[in-house]
Design brief:
single chain; 175 residues; five-stranded antiparallel sheet; 8 helices
């Protein structure tokens, strides 16, 4: 695993104009640089690089981000592979730490809890918007409090008429 100190060093060293310049011909337009977007076909430049903020943005396809995001998207690399790619470009030595078995187990437990929580979120959403009781009790309650449906969905609000139905559903699905 790449140490947090090395990750920060790589991110601090990465300059968007250098990274993008390896793949796109850029021309200066005021404070920014412009070129043809490498993520979609275009004839007029809509791809902008802002060296001061160390970001890129395509106003044609909407992609944007920092140097790490660009390399991940363009080269189809994972986050660690991208960090190694950038470190090689800037001749940065990567400090790797050994991952213990305890850390791996803790990470797996945390990841599984996120998965269960995502499934629970879907369950409560389905109960609120698709069940008769959810619509008549839960949704009418939220609307009486002034919540719009887009707000309810944005914040992941939901409904369940009892505490056992979620447990039964998750167990039946193998959680």
């Amino acid at each position: 695993m790449i140490s947090p100190r090395s990750v920060q060093e790589i991110i601090d060293a990465a300059r968007i104009e250098d990274i993008v310049g390896d793949f796109v011909t850029l021309k200066r337009r005021g404070a920014n640089l412009q070129g043809l977007c490498p993520f979609h076909n275009e004839k007029t430049p809509s791809f902008s690089v802002n060296p001061a903020r160390n970001i890129f943005k395509c106003f044609g396809c909407g992609k944007g981000g920092d140097p790490v995001t660009f390399v991940m998207e363009h080269e189809q690399l994972s986050y660690p592979e991208t960090l190694r790619y950038i470190a090689k470009k800037y001749n940065i030595a990567i400090e790797e730490t050994q991952v213990s078995e305890t850390y791996i187990q803790e990470k797996q437990i945390a990841d599984s809890l996120y998965i269960v929580n995502e499934r629970a979120l879907k369950f409560f959403d389905t109960q609120l918007f698709e069940s008769d009781k959810g619509k008549s009790v839960g949704l009418s309650y939220f609307k009486s409090r002034g919540f719009r449906e887009e707000t309810i969905k944005k914040w992941g609000l939901g409904f369940s008429d009892d505490a056992v139905s979620l447990t039964k559903t998750l167990q039946s699905e193998g959680y």
